[in-house]
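Quick one: structure tokens for this chain, please?
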Amino acid sequence: MGSFITQLNDRLLQHKSLLQSFRACLMPKEPKAPPTATQVDELRHLYATYAGVLDYSEMSAIGELRLWYHRAAAESGNPPRNVLEPADISDRP
């Protein structure tokens, strides 16, 4: 029974770590600075987890995150009203 609880605890901790990594994908309310080192590390963790199904490099993912922050900072006077607006911002020329 102790081994089962330990294995279950380990799995839950792994899921917690993975879910926390998704914070890198959330834009701050006031994006006036580039992503922090913690956010970049979280994105690296996500990339490592999903590298097998992604068709771009880790550096491309980090560059995209930085681009999103740059674009969001440029649009800071007009914050997104829903979850799709940041994607629309990043697709604009």
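The first helix runs from residue 2 to 21.
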